[in-house]
Amino acid sequence: MHGRELLRFALSKGVAPPVSAPHLAIVDDEVEITRLLAPYLERHGFRVTALHNGAALLSLMESDPPALVLLDLGLPGED
Question: I want to staple 41 with a disulfide (CB 3.0 to 4.6 A). Which of 11, 16, 20, 46 is the partner?
Fold first, then answer.
């Protein structure tokens, strides 16, 4: 087995994704957007942090920086 096949097998057996799963952050003030995206990305092997404002993202960047940030360009209060 390779990559995705191995991950699917592990998930089918109730095993958590490996610690080395790429970390993604989703930042959107619309909670429904993060509720839809986070589970989808997690099922595809990513470790996902859902956030709802820029301050939370800045805090995450200091403690557990993601490899990629999916950012709402119209986030209120942030430029």
Answer: 46
